[in-house]
Every structure is written in C-alpha cells, then in structure tokens.
From TrEMBL:
Any single GO CC term annotated in Swiss-Prot or TrEMBL for this entry: extracellular region
Signal sequence interval, chain numbering: none
SUPFAM superfamilies in UniProt: Phospholipase A2, PLA2
Segments for region (Disordered): 202-235
InterPro entries linked: PLA2_histidine, PLA2G12, PLipase_A2_dom_sf
Example of a GO biological process term: lipid catabolic process
Location within or outside the cell: Secreted
Pfam family for this entry, one: PLA2G12
Protein name: Group XIIA secretory phospholipase A2
Gene Ontology terms for molecular function: calcium ion binding; phospholipase A2 activity
Lineage: Eukaryota, Metazoa, Ecdysozoa, Arthropoda, Hexapoda
Superkingdom field: Eukaryota
Amino acid sequence: MQASYMKIAIYVLTFLTYAYSGYGSNTLAHLRDAIIAAEAIFGDVFKNLITVAKKFRTVHEVFDAAVEETCIFKCPTDNGGQDIRPLQNKLYTPTADGCGSLGLRISTEYLPAAEMEVCCNEHDICYDTCNSDKELCDLDFKRCLYKYCDSYEKSIASDLMIKSCKAAAKMLFTGTLTLGCKSYLDSQQRSCYCPPAGNRQRDDKNYHKSYHNNGDKHYGKNKKQKYGWKDPNEV
C-alpha cells in the first residue's frame, strides 16, 4: 500500500526533530497513533459522504421518474429509428425481495398481516417480467393487499385491526403509484433484452422470405408472441 506524501513528510520532519535527542520517543508514538486514528476517522467520513451522495442521486432519479405521466420501458433507438420491441431475457430469472424498494425493506413484523409479503413478492415478480404493464401490476397488488384486510372483517377482529390493515395496504399501494416507476424501469431493464437494430432488420427479411417461399398467406396471422408478459395490443 502506497503511503501518502503528506504522511511521509510528517514522519520525516518529526524524525529530524528528535533524531539527535534522547527525548520525544513517546511523542513520536503518540503522533503516529494520531495520524493512524485521523486517517481511519476521515476515511470513514469520506466513505459515508460518498454513500450519502449516491443516495441523493438515487432519490433524484426516483422523483424524475415519478413526474413522468407514463411509465413504459422502451429499448434505446437511434434518432428517428424504428422502435424495437423488448424481448424476454432468457438468461434472467425474476426475483422478489419482500416489501420495500430501493434497498429499504419492510419487515413482516411491522405489517398488520404477514401474508402481505406474499403480495409484495408477486408484485416484484410482475415488475421483473419483461413487457409487464405497470398499471396492471399495481392493480393486482392492491387487490391482493385488500384481500387480506377483507379476511379480517369476516373474523372477530376489532375495528382498529381492520383500519390499521387498510391503512398499511393503502400506504404500500400509494408508494408504488408515486415512487414505483424507477423500480419498474430498473426491473424491466434487467429482465428484457433489446436486440440490435441490424439483427432485427435481418430477422424481418428472413420472415418475409419464408412468407413468400411457402406461399402461406396466413403465416404469422394471429400468432401469439413467445416473449413477454402480455401482448400490449390486448390491453
């Protein structure tokens, strides 16, 4: 590990001061300890500042995504280029991490019903599936949450338990509506594959060539897409 020039200069000056005297050995030891302690303290401070800066950047990106009227994942294209339909990434498996987002997880002990975590996991899987519709994912999430609250009404639970359950459900659902766009877009970016424009044009040529050679006028008609959560035209 390379020592900093400032540390070397301090050691050299201190050594020259006490080199020809019988005193200062304790001072040298204290100075060395002070330098090491200062390095550790300020190193942790700078590390924390970097972490805080990254968090602010994440929050800024979250609010930027939240102000968008539509939250739709699109493959990047050249200026004026044709839109490219995202394909399911076959090498990626959708994952779930319970309730929470952006590294902040809500423990089940703070939820009125532990079963609500099932709703959160299903919501994560929906976000993490290529070409899923965010609004449909959020709607299914809301129905799942309120389903567990409705089960309280059929039991002997008190009004306070029912109200707290619905309040928690509303908080979780509202969070996905206001701040869930970035999480959705990040999940779509992981789960989708955007083919290069050149490969897509080549695939289109092969398709038309096969169409004319086979003479099948109905080839490809009403054919379901192999990839994706759903067909956007069916929504």
